[in-house]
Amino acid sequence: MLALHGTGVSDGVSIGKAFVLQQDLPEVPQYALTAPHIEAEVERFADAVAQARRQLRYIRDHIPASAPTETASFLDTHLLILDDPMIAQAPVDDIRRHRCNAEWALKTQGERLSAQFERMDDPYLRNKKTDVNQVVERILRNLLLADHNEHEKLAPGEIVVANDLTPADTVILKHKRIRAFVTNMGGPISHTAILARSLGIPAIVSAHSATRYVRHGEDLIVDGKRGVLIVGPDKQTIAAYRRLQQDIGARRKLLAKLRGSPAVTRDGRRIALLANIELPADVKAAAQAGAAGIGLYRTEFLFMNRAAPPGEEEQFRAYVKVAKALAGKPVTIRTVDLGADKQVDGGRGAGAAVSINPALGLRAVRLCLRDTTLFRPQLRAILRASAAGKVRLMIPMLSSQDELFRVLDLIGETKSELRRKRVKFNPRIPIGGMIEVPAAAVSADLFAPYLDFFSIGTNDLIQYTLAIDRVDDAVNYLYDPLHPAVLRLIRLTIQAARAARIPVAMCGEMAGDARYTRLLLGLGLTEFSMHPATLLAVKKIVRASNAGALTKFARKILKRADTGEVHRLVDGLNREDI
User: Fold this and answer.
1) Residue 300 assigned as binding residue
2) Is 7 in a helix, a strand, or coil?
3) In a shared domain, residues 14 and 81
4) For the chain, does the N or the C end have fewer beta carbons within 10 angstroms?
């Protein structure tokens, strides 16, 4: 029996037989061409790209009706990448310049692009490296005449173990009704993870070397919550996990009964439980979980994997779709939060320098203020969408009053422009700020008079406060939501909002982790925004808690300096009947 660890991206437990998806490419050859053969090689490359396009279009046209709606958009992304000059033209230039074969030209260009993405700090953009690599691999398979149809051998109910899965793979696997999957590659925000959550099957990504240690047909247990893959489990372990499966099933049935129940504490405090979404299609999951609205609509997905940013009309249609689907519930749209490296979305000029430390560089509101041609169309689209529902606008990564005032001026100018054109919008659209930089938390009282609400983005707040990169394996063990400095900054923000009589929410991962719910209630938080899949578990804790009594315990925890002691107190708090 062997246990492998990765990142659990879709909750649940699955027990079944392994299907190891063999995706290894044959060795890519390198050889020189003579002058008369160069144009024939260029044509061979073009044929392989055209074949890849036909393959993807065929898969897209045969998506099962039960597949998540995001599936088509992921396939469209791969089709767009096929048309990008960095894929479609750069290898041709190399074939002609270096007189090398098409496979080698594409392989070296793919490696260059992969290195560029790897230097990106923004995790959403860094994950797009996977899409580029998958498109490159599809073309390479065509050039090398390698097999695309390993999935045909898959039987229903098996657990797929693969190096990685493409959007096309997931469509095929949906047809095959797989039980779970595990990949060597990927992260919690990769398309693979998003689709796993949409499909509602247990999944683990970043389980390094899983394909090396798992044999075809071997018994497996996938624990999607803890990110543990057990290879060759004994009878006792299988029995234990079968009991856990039954417990999970029973808990889910009990939680499902809470969908229509109010999120009110035992002492009568009403708590707003909202959902975070990335795509308009995610609204369905939010509604099914009984979310009171959308606390964070990440708009970055509209901007990714394209040669130019989306236009005002495209953004407007996406925002209106969400606003109308929520039928009068609040929808908080965050203005685009992209990192310093912009090659994938056309927002960065040719020859622009790569930031040495993008986490502290040109990103989020800084980028929007630098490039108002990116920002103004989004502001117009959000304001126009506000006529269709309870839309709120949220500004990410504020760090100074000057930034806030410049954004407010741009919003004011945009409102005036829409009035002149007699375009409908809500003139009193609430404007909020994300508190995710320590400077903003410390000076939250200076921001509060000019904003209608706060939202605490704990993912970045923790990263910046503790000076660690949360996606760096070497230091991410230091990432700790219960560090005393982090808790003090959260408390400062809540106090500043309360003094200014404006609401404050939390939209980072901490808000959706039931372990922290009671502590946050004790700190005075009344709005939580999270992934829809975690909402009912948080609601259960809320309804079983006495918010007034928790305040005393939160004050006690805030006085502790030792992080280990804080963890013990929080665990004890969760065991108390308070």
Assistant:
1) no
2) strand
3) no
4) N
pLDDT in tens, 95-119: 999 999 999 999 999 998 888 877 7
Q: Is 527 annotated as a binding residue?
A: no
* CATH number for the domain that contains residue 279: 3.20.20.60
Residue 235 maps to which CATH number? 3.50.30.10
Residue 518 lies in a domain: yes
Domain assignment present for 29: no
298 annotated to bind ligand: yes
Q: How many domains does the chain have?
A: 3
Q: What's the pLDDT band for 359 if we cut at 50, 70, 90?
A: low
Residue 464's alpha-carbon distances to 357, 369, 436, 437, 487, in angstroms, are 13, 21, 8, 7, 14
Residue 30 lies in a domain: no
- Indicate the pLDDT class of residue 42, thresholds 50, 70 and 90: very high
What is the band of 158 on the pLDDT scale with cuts at 50, 70, 90?
confident
Give residues with Cβ within 8 angstroms of 242, minimum separation 6.
15
Helix, strand and coil percent figures for the chain, each rounded to 5: 55, 15, 35
Sequence-distant (≥ 6) Cβ neighbours of residue 452 within 8 angstroms? 392, 430, 431, 432, 502
- pLDDT (tens digit per residue) in 185-243: 877 656 677 667 767 789 998 888 898 889 888 999 999 988 999 999 999 999 999 99
Do 182 and 208 sit in the same domain of this protein? yes
Cα–Cα distance measured from residue 85 to residue 213, given in angstroms and rounded to the nearest whole number: 39
CA–CA distance, 446 with 503 (Å, rounded to integer): 15
372 and 312 in a common domain: yes
In this prediction, residue 353 carries a pLDDT of: 44
Q: Is 334 annotated as a binding residue?
A: yes
Both 426 and 480 in a single domain? yes
Of 116-125, 193-202, 352-361, 469-478, the least confident: 352-361
Q: Is residue 28 part of a domain?
A: no
Together in a domain, 203 and 316: no
The values of phi and psi at residue 488, to 5°, are -65, -40
The torsion region of residue 566 among left (phi > 0), alpha (psi -120 to 50) and beta comes to alpha
Q: Running DSSP on this structure, what letter comes out for residue 391?
A: E
* Same domain, residue pair 16 and 92: no
Question: Rounded to 5 degrees, what are φ and ψ at 437?
Answer: -115, 135
Annotated active-site positions, please? Answer: 191, 507
In angstroms, the CA 80 to CA 435 distance is 35
CA distance 70 to 248: 27
Handedness of CA 65, 176, 245, 545 (dihedral sign): negative
Domain end call among 237, 253, 269 = 253
